[in-house]
Fold each of these.
Amino acid sequence: MLTAKQLYPWCRIPWQELEKHPARRVPLRVCRDSAEMGRLMARELVDEIQSHNRRGEPTRAIIPCGPACWYKPFTELVNREQVSLKGLVVFHMDECLDWQGRELPLAHPYSFRGFMEAQFYAPVAPELAVRPENRVWVRPNNLDDVRARIWQAPIDITYGGWGQDGHIAYNQARRDPYSGLTIDDVRDSTVRVQYNNWDTVLALAQRTFGAAYQFVPPMSVTLGVKECLSAKKVRLFSDTGAWKATALRVALFSDVTPEYPITLL
């Protein structure tokens, strides 16, 4: 477990020094603001799709729900430049579930599918849109099918974010005292249904519901670290501030540790 003594020197580094810090273990780009980051995300994914389209190949991408800043510039680029998404296969990263492991109503604030249907798919011109059969939603009842489809061919690019404990998708650090994980366990984790950690619930409650944790879905279904990090390219993004600042510094400076899955980058 990382100690306060280990964390302190990393956490005291001003953000302005992170991008070029000599001890940094992974590349970092600091954007001016959320809008710049959204444009960068949109442009990179459009360029990736166009490159595959020109070669007559599909584009296989793992895509998160969020950050919200990139959906509008992405759909605008697709429509303006007439980029066909017919060959794009989207593997959605994760989804929130209620206390019985059931999917949420699409109108729920934490229904990732509801949000993505409205923000990522609906604004695209129908003649350019991702085919319904290529919108691969991870659900409690299709884990084996999603896993098999992901491993049919390489993933070209993973987009994602990270949580307060450096989780990628919903691959959180385990808090269960009776089943601790090694770093290899985390690295090889695959598609599954799980209970969310209390610190994840509280972080989401603070972010969205004024700390009313009673409204936060307590379970999730997620792709594993194995799937997310199998891609030829992995890009993680965040525009949500202080609650992710420590995990970012751990990712930049720490050895790999199951306490922070993001260190596997």
Amino acid sequence: MTASLGDLNVILLGTLGSLAAGMGTALGAVFILLRPQWSHRSQVEMLAFAAGVMLAASIFSLLLPAIEIVAARTESVAALVAEVTAGLGLGALAVWAGNRWIPHEHFIKGPEGQATLHLGRHWLFVMAIALHNLPEGMSVGIAFGGGPDRGIPVALGIGLQNLPEGLAVAAALVADGFERRRAFWLATLTGLLEPLGGFVGALAMALGDVLLPWGLAFAGGAMLYVIFAEVLPETHSGGRERAATLSLVIGFVSMMALDLTLG
């Protein structure tokens, strides 16, 4: 009975933690109601900051803990490298497959995925952000599988990066011709997908402790793929590379400090 209650706690905490992180998207998007126009440079800097936070979270809160857990179980460096690499690779492959087959559209990169569904352009934008937010929510749920000490920093970090991301998404929608309230609700909708990922991640962790390092590495790999294949190409356009890089470093340092403080 105790074990089952513990499993329920993991699932509940992972789901609620990812919900709180996802609400950061709505909190950031609300600023579009206060100020309708945001420059392209501002949008680039906000997305790059979010990428920096994600990068630090994937390293300090996901991959390094996965390495520590596996290292405590085996003295074989080869086994350690193989297990963490396999988990990371599977996470990156899962996001790649989603991008390859699920129809979506980026503001700068344009349409991707298989055009098997005839969706409106704004729903394709929502699908693109959803492909980011599902693995983010999953990372929170998986982190809570290692206890609140691991889960809370990840939830705070993802919530932090969702603030500028939510505003950037809403601002891009407004710039594309959307009414401000509609842009706000669409941005909020993308954030509300994170609890789904959180529930799945926490449920997987509740099945057994042996899956924890695999889950952490999987989430880390998924987030790394999102950063380098999806977010950064959106920021390195129009001669904004320096501003984007500076914002990324600031986001990375902010998340690193948060993780070290809470860890």
Amino acid sequence: KSGKAYVLEKPVAMTLAEAKELYLATKNTGLTNAVGFSYRYLPAVQKAKEIISSGALGKIHHVYAQYIEGKDDNENIPLLWRYQKELAGSGSLGDLGSHMLDMMRYLVGDFNEVIGTSGIIIPKRQKLDGSGLGDVTTEDYFHAMATMENDISATMCFTKFAWGRKNSQRLEIYGSRGGLIYTLENGLRGSDHLKVCLGNELALTGDWVDMNLKGFDGVYNTKSQMDCFAEKMLGIKNTIPADIEDGYYVQGIIEAMMNSTQSRTWHKVSDYIIK
């Protein structure tokens, strides 16, 4: 309302209704904005985008995505806000999954239909005031399948109960002429890697080539999230940053997935998103 540009963290809201309200308000004012899907800016993701956009993978068939952690597999962690749906909106799906849902859209395209299953592994945790145990109401894990545009089939795994893993991401994309594997360990910039297998010769031998990408000062230079936002403020065209429309769309996928766990049926993402 004050007319100020903004950067918003992800997920952009606790519900799709909230995301829609913010999306429409921003659209009507034309404010410069960005959403913190920060993994877009990693060299490995930018190189993957370049390879896919070039058509080197051919027609994309499959996407396999996971974002896993092990930090919540501890009954001594109290009932923090992240474990309360009324305060967080969702659990592993919104916290971890939103990043990968955006990355999948950014690299290969939009979602058509989704279906998911979720669960709570530690159902009660100690209340912060010490008055006893309270109910955990956000999901500890979320597993899903999806169909995406151009007949792409996808599976996804998001959990905070993967023992020994710290902010670990893996994205495998396979097409008619090649494949690529993106990984990130410990959530640290510089730990991102990209391997590719392109063409019949490498496919026959099963050899994968490590792209050996560097960070900001290396051979494959990428800009940071805030650098890109500053460029948007200055009117410099930049296609990397996600904006509130991307955030709204991802919130629609999240809501469709969450509803699918209740109905046990496939849900069309287009039923949740206004164009």
